[in-house]
Design goal:
homodimer; 71 residues; mainly alpha; 434 Repressor (Amino-terminal Domain); two-stranded antiparallel sheet; 5 helices; DNA-binding
DNA sequence: GCTCGATGTCAAAAATATCTTACACGCCGC
DNA sequence: GCGGCGTGTAAGATATTTTTGACATCGAGC
């Protein structure tokens, strides 16, 4: 599986700013697996638009406040 | 292929507002196939975060100005 | 020491997105 | 009529994301 996608994210920071929310807790809140959270945080792949929306909504910010585009 | 995802989009409107840009032209600009553009416009599936970024950048707007979340 | 929670790794399967190709239809200009 | 363009549909193949489950490590607390 190939290349790291040109997408940056601040999921980990936001998680910590949100009262030490754990990966498991975030995963449960957005309805995905802990594996998925780990992979996204590590930039192994970029999430679907749906997951991106859910994540940003959990933190109460916009998508572009969480994910960045290195184009 | 199951259910239509809870994601709305204004790709078609934006395309028309952008000087009658055709599906093919948009597809070429964002580096995907015309099929993909059609499927996204029809809401058959939600694009990847990467495609979403590319699309919104073509139109010079933010992701949330193109895609909406019906959560 | 032991257990627990949080994090990470690995690997395979399932689900979803994307590509390729081909065909069909309506509209417009020639 | 015919050709080109824009749009839509369909099927199969490939790629990517997501899930599942098992196991390893580290730090804190008992």
């Amino acid at each position: 599986m190939g290349k790291p996608p040109p997408i940056t994210n601040r999921v980990r920071e936001l998680r910590e700013e949100h009262g030490q929310m754990s990966q498991s807790a975030l995963a449960k809140e957005i309805g995905v697996t802990r594996q998925t959270v780990i992979a996204i945080e590590q930039g192994r792949y970029s999430p679907s638009l749906e997951s991106a929306f859910k994540i940003s909504r959990v933190f109460g910010v916009g998508i572009e406040d969480v994910f960045g585009w290195v184009g």
